[in-house]
Amino acid sequence: MELINYLNNNFHTKQTLLKLCDISSEELLRLQTQQITPKCSYKIKFSVNCDSFFGDYDNQEVTEYYAKGTVEWLKVVKKSSSEHAFSIFSERYQRQLKQLQKQGFNSIEEKLNGDIAQYLKEEWLHFLNGTYGLCTQSGLPEDIASKELAISEINRLISLNELSTEQRQTLKNVVNLLDQVSALFAPHERLQSSRHRLIAQVREKYQLSN
Prior knowledge:
alpha+beta, three-stranded antiparallel sheet, flat
């Protein structure tokens, strides 16, 4: 099944995550409940029905899938408080924005400039819910910051009636940035995803090379 292949190739199951991080299922649940680490990005429910000489057998199983970057995150924060984990998230997010700025990536979005404390609180909640594990390569603060900056700039540029040569180059650069950090998305999600709308369709419309 294409969906299962995608998940197995791009995510860690809960069992694999527990093994790699050397923690128990109960400890993971505690860290999630206390808002220290993200929930799973995908949850697959399997229903098994077997008919044999001994009669019918029905069973349901649930498999959770986590962004691969969750391993690194857990190793950093599994002994932290929620406040400390959030401060780590915020520092890494803002450090990435500054690094991107040095590389020539900028955004005029107010939420990404100056005092972004409130915005980071919103991003933290999306992070904890597993949303960014679904839509970025790693699910880590660095990829999240890059994704949000790239999306804000792409949306700004494609809203303009006409682009100068310099603006077209900027558009190409931020589309490539989004391509680097964006997840492939599960097969059933791709046509609705930001990758399709802001990478594939923008490249086609503006005839941008990779």
